[in-house]
Amino acid sequence: MSVSPAVPSTHASRPQRGWYKRNEIAITPWLFLLPAMIFFAVYVIIPIGQSFWISLHEWDGLGEKTWVGTANYERLLGWGDANVDRKFSVSFWNNLKWLVLYLLAIPAGLFIALFLNQTVTGIRFYKSMFFFPFVISQVVVGLVFSWFYLPREGLLNAILGFFGAGPINVLGDPTLATYGIIAAGLWPQTAYCMILYLTGLNAVDPEQVEAARLDGAKGHKMLWYVILPQLKPATFIAFVVTIIGALRSFDLISVMTNGGPFGSTRVLSFYMFEESLSEFGFRMGYGAAIAVVLFFIMLGFITYFLYAMYQDEKGAH
Amino acid sequence: MFPTPLAKTSRTWQISYQVLLPVMLIIWLLPLIAVANFSIKPESDFVNGNYWGIPSSFEAFSNYGRVFFESNMPRYLWNSLFITIPTVIGAVALSAMAGFALGVYKFKGNLLIFFIFIAGNFVPFQILMVPVRDLTLSLNLYDTKTGLVLFHIAFQTGFCTLFMRNFIRALPFPLIEAARVEGIAEWKIFLYVVLPLMKPALAALAVLIFTFIWNDYFWAVVLTQGPDAQPVTAGITEFNSQFRAAYHLMSAGSIVAALPPVAMFFLMQKHFIAGLTLGAVK
After folding, report:
1. Which Pfam families match (chain A) (predicted)?
2. In chain A, what residues touch B151 (CB-CB under 8 Å)?
3. I need a surface site. Which of B56, B222, B240, B278 has the fewest CB within 10 A?
4. Chain B residue with minimal CA distance to A304?
5. Predicted TM-score (pTM) of this structure
6. A250–B217 C-beta distance less than 8 A
7. Do A33 and B34 make contact, defined as CB atoms within 8 angstroms?
8. What is residue B151's predicted lDDT score, i.e. its pLDDT?
C-alpha cells in the first residue's frame, strides 16, 4: 500500500456522473427517434385511426359529425337490404384489373433487363434511356398518353391506320378506357422493374452460370433453374412496388379520364377522392369508409410483405 | 453472365442486336418523342393536321417562351422548388437520426417501431386524406407550401428510415464500439463517426425524395389550390384548361415540368439507382 505511486486515483476523484451520462446508451436512441416518431404519428399513424372513426359518421368536413354507425359500410357493400353501391363495385373490379395487369410489369421488366444485360458500347446510355419513363411525373405520363390515344390525331391511331386497322377511341370507350390507363401505367412501372432486374443480374454468380453451361443448360432452362432463383430478392421488391403502385393508382386516372367515361375508369382511390372532395358536396364519412376498405385490401399485402421481411431479419441474426 | 455475352454469340445476332437496340429504344420512348416533337411545332401544324410529321418550322423558342412569360408556369416551378427542397432536408435529417437509433441500439420495441415505419410507408394515401386535410386546415396551413412540406416530411420519413436503418446496419459496427471505448458521447458518434460514412445513403435518398416530391400530384390537389402554393404537377392540369387543345404549349409545359427530376436523375444516376434498388441484391 505504501509503495503505491503518487498518481491521483481517477476513479475516486471523478465527480459523480450525471443521470444522463449514466443512462446514455438507453436514452440516446429515444432522443434520436423522437422527432421522426412524432411526425410519423401525427401525420400517418393517428390519421389511420381517425379515418376509421370518421367512416362511422356522416360529415361534410366542416360542421358537426353525425354518428351513423355502420350505415356507410352498409350502403357501400350492400349489407342488409341495400344494394351494393354500383360505383363502388365498378371501382373494386377496376382495382382488381389494375392489380392483375400491373403485374405484367414484372415479366416485361425482366425481358428488357435480359435484353439490355450486355456489355457493348453505349449500353449505359441505353439503360438510362429505358429507365427514363419512371423519372417523369405520372401527371406528365398521363398527358403524354392522352395525346397518344387521341381519337383522330393520336399517334396510336396513326400507327393502327398504317396497318389498316382502327381508328379506336381508347379513352372514350368505357370498355377500353381502364386498359388504356393501365397500359400507360405499365410504362413507368416496367422501367422500374427493369432497373431492379438489371441490378439483380449484375450480382448473379458467374461461376454458377458457367457450371450450368458446362452441364448443358441454356436458354429458358438456364433462366428458370439458375438465374431466376438468384433474382429472388429483385422479384420480391418488384412484386411489392408493383402491388402498391397498382392499389395507389390515382394520378393517371385523374389526369387521363377523371373517372370517365360514365365512371368506367374509377378505382377505389379515385372514388374515395371524388366522394370526399367533389363539387357535389363533401361526403367525408362515406369517403373514409371507401378508404378503410382500400386500406384493408392493402393491409393483406402489407402483412405478407412484413412477414417476409421479418423472416429475413430473423435469418440475419 | 446471363444471357450469353454478345462476344460469344453468332455474327448475325451481334449485328441484329446492334440494330435492335436503337429501334427498341425509339419504340419505347415513342410517346415522349412525339411530345418533344409537339413542343417545337408551330400552331399551324396542328390546324393543318400535321401532328406527327416533321415540324414545318422550328418554334421551340416561341413555344417555350410563351410557357415562361404568358402563364403561371414560373410560379408553379418556384412553388415546387420551395416544397421539394425543405422536404428533402427534413425527411433526410429525421430519418438519418431514426435510422441511427434503430440500426445501432438494442432496445425493447426496436423491431416493432421499425416495422411501423415500413408499414406506414405502404399505406394507401386515401386513408390519410380526410384527417390530414382536416389537420392542415385547423393549423391554418391549407393552401400553403408549409402544409405540404410538413406532411411530405412525415410520410417520406417512413421509407427513408427503412433505407437509413438498413444502410447503418451494414456499416462496420466495431467502429462505433471503438468510439465508445474512447468515451465519445453517443450524439458525437452519430455526428462524427456514422454520418460521414452515410454520405452515399444521404445522396441516394436526397435524389429519390426530390423526384418523389416533385412528382407528387395527389397531395398537391388535396392540400392546395391555385397558383399561390400549388406545385407544377397540379399547375399543369390548370394549364390544361388555359391552353386547351394548344398541344404545342401544353407539350412544352409538360417538358418543363418534367425536367428537374430528369436532370437530377442524369446528374446523380448512380445514387438514384442505388436508392431504388435497395435490397434487390442480397
Report:
1. BPD_transp_1 (PF00528)
2. 43
3. B56
4. B119
5. 0.91
6. yes
7. no
8. 97
How far off is chain B from A1, nearest CA to CA, in Å?
30
A57 SS3 class: strand
Is the confidence at residue B242, as pLDDT, over 80? no
CB contact under 8 Å between A302 and B123, yes or no, is yes
Q: Does A100 touch chain B (CB under 8 A)?
A: no
pLDDT confidence band for A84 (50 / 70 / 90):
confident
d(CA B275, CA B209): 10
pLDDT of residue A15: 58
Cβ atoms B155, A317 nearer than 8 A: no
Q: Quick check: A276 pLDDT over 50?
A: yes
Query: How many whole angstroms separate alpha carbon B173 and alpha carbon B103?
Result: 10
Closest-CA distance, A9 to chain B, in angstroms, reads 18
- The top-scoring range by mean pLDDT among A53-57, A149-153, B277-281 is A53-57
Residues of chain A with C-beta less than 8 angstroms from the C-beta of B238: none
Across the interface, whether the CB atoms of B277 and A195 are under 8 A apart is answered yes
Report the C-alpha gap between B194 and B168 in whole angstroms.
Answer: 8
- Tell me which chain A residue has its CA closest to the CA of residue B107: A26
Measure the CA–CA gap between A14 and A11, rounded to whole angstroms: 6
Asked whether the beta carbons of B275 and A149 are under 8 A apart, the reply is no
Contact yes or no for B6 and A119 at CB 8 A? yes
Judged against a pLDDT cut of 60, whether residue A1 lies above it is answered with no
ipTM rounded to 2 decimals: 0.92
Mean pLDDT score of chain B: 91
